[in-house]
Records
---
Amino acid sequence: MDEPMPPGRLAPAGERPTVLVLRALGLGDLLAGVPALRGIRRAFPGHETVLAAPAGLGPAIRATGVVDRHFRTADNGRRVPSLGHWRGAPPAVAIDLHGNGPESHEALAALSPARLLSPARPEPGHPAPPRWRADEHERHRWCRFLDAYGVPADPEDLRIPPPPGPSPAPGAVVLHPGADSGARRWPADRYAAVAARIRDAGHRVVVVTGPGEGELCRSVAGPAGLGPRDTFAATLPFDAFSALIAHARLFLSGDTGPAHLAYAHGAPSVTLFGPVSPHLWGPPPLPRHIALWSEGPPGDPHAAEPDPCLLRLGADTVLGASLDALGRAGPREGATARA
């Protein structure tokens, strides 16, 4: 269940002491954790950095280049996975980047690490242990947590390089209307209206969706007048999907994992927020990223129905922000985002 990461210069598993990091969540969580993971790897240069994360994130973990080895866990939503299949020596350091509950702490403690850093239980004897703050941005939260233990990490150090392969639609405006939950899924007819207007303004527009979202893809592309060459309904492997976003002229989506991929690649983006504030999960404060949110009380990001704050974003508002972003963005044909 262990997967070494490239490049080949890295030592094989077991030849160095291990730093085991638990962050067994989704794509957006992985990418928001890149600054923290990068800080950990820098702070322990003589150790092998191992990330415990779902097996399905393997291609994305390889693309980040921030760990030496992927310890694959079950794809079980946001629940803490079992680490009982760990077969190596006890980790020299175990770091909980999964959450602030006792479950993730206990999963790591069961491996008997020499040192365990966890928000649930501060390290014994620490003079000023970090406190969990619910109002803190995810990237800043984990960098502050690590900094308290002498591991410097920069929350803005989130960029990753684009994949080496070409984009299937270089320079296109990419719409991603899907989401893991209905709460973060803006209505398809509004996406279609925005797509049609952007296409009429002279831009190539493509729609991409994930597994099980073929009908959603068609419900946006059809009314927008987009043909088969401009639709990608769960047909792209991760590297091609990543290249599509990295070389997009603009990426428009809800608050989902692919939005964090746009931030990581530095692709211009417009992100629509609903149940969760962009102050907690939004893009870095750069002009190329626009976060739209109709401010309101926090909602359930895993609810089945679109959040009221998300529904208050009208098509004209999103179109205006998109055209403004396109006016500021230069040509993206063949563009390269450098880490």
Note: The chain has two domains: 2-148, 173-328.
---
Amino acid sequence: MKLLLLEDDFEYKMTIKEYLESLNYEIDDYDNGEDALNAIYENNYQILILDIRVPKLNGYELVKIIREDNINIPVIYITSLTDINNLSLGYELGCNDYIKKPFSPKELRYRIEQLIKLYYTNENSNKIELLPNFSYDIIKKQLFDDQKEISLTKKQNKVIFFLISNKNNFVSIETLRTEVWDDKYISEADIRVCIKKIRDKTSKDFIKNQRGLGYKIDRKE
């Protein structure tokens, strides 16, 4: 799962980043709002973690811009601001949660996990039910066939998570190359081999493909 972190205090930012990376989140970090805004338009993030008082473009302005462009990525503000007017403004602009500094890293972890459940699962559960008979624990990042866990490589897991997060929509090979392989050169044949290995561990119908559109994993209704 790919998260964006905006924080201009270097030590504080690195502490948060290292903790979240230890939980296997992929973190892109920025220290000013303009760079963070550009990154949001260039990448696919599942959650934005934003300080409010940052240079060039503050957290309020950033959220206002993306919401006006119908970008509905969940947002957590991290801030030392406590005034009710400041909190109200954040929610009015479209943030989903606040966490007040100083905070325990575990508190941030729980806030992130709650947003994942709310926005990326269909019910109050960590597991997403997938066709034909699989499930994926979005917190533990584990794939199951019935109750049996399927062993995955890190790259296979990233492919599966990215396809699941696109909610029944096809994802092109080029998008997979950008988001899963971080824009590093990899041939289409190598991507297809990765898909085939996932199918070998699951079923031929687990990942569907359509010429010209790409790949998708279907969720159960």
Note: Residues 2-120 form a domain with the Rossmann fold fold (CATH 3.40.50.2300).
---
Amino acid sequence: MLERIITALVLVAVVLSCMFATTSIYPMLVLMIIAAGGAGYEWFKLMPRQTDQVNKLKAGCFGVLTAVVSGFALYFNDLALILWSASIISWFISLYWVKHYPQYDGWYNQALNIIGLVIIGAAVTAIFEVWLSSPWWLMYLFLLVWGADSGAYFVGRKLGKRKLAPEVSPNKSIEGLVGGIVTVVIIIMIVQSKYLNLSYIEHALFLILSLVTVFSSVLGDLFESMIKRRAGIKDSGRILPGHGGVLDRIDSLLAAAPFFAAGMYVLKLIGVDL
């Protein structure tokens, strides 16, 4: 437990420093590229392979490729928008996969490598774009994800009886999901009432975006759990003592970030000034 707490404190310190300690884009940019490379390396290890051993060189090359693709997308906004769109489509498709696992696992093939490139690249570029708009909006995104996860954990632990997706993640319950939603609704209401000056329609749109982000974060968590279960791996990596790998820490954000960033982009296009 002490190891887990220390790792969490270090991670929070690094992320918050990149978010708030400087107005320079480069610390956050470097952090995103490193995260993309680490996530890509771990993603490759979860993919189908012909032997039981993972080729670390190939995994490393895939991690570098993921970092390079993400770096280009961070520089070219049009590519980032394409990645967000492709990622959102992939997440909608993954709903079917999660719902029908393990009866259907035809999705577990080499095409997952491409999907990994897309969703990791989309997530890191979305996080970076949200941070560019304001570090506080990125903090809000984190609060949505963390609030949903924490609320689901504590409520599910006390009241959880009906399983949400027992074949994918046996510990998650419908009661926990409701608890997570209630938690984030409180967060949303506080932010909307204290910090946003919006019309009733704009408030409703922002509420919908926030709730969609929360549900997508749950899907991201379930999807990564399903891939790990299919690959027969407990943790995606061991780089974060007490926490597993990079993917284990950002699984919810993989889905939540593109939905939130794309939603903010659309709201801005229709004249909603956040």
Note: The chain has nine helices and two strands.
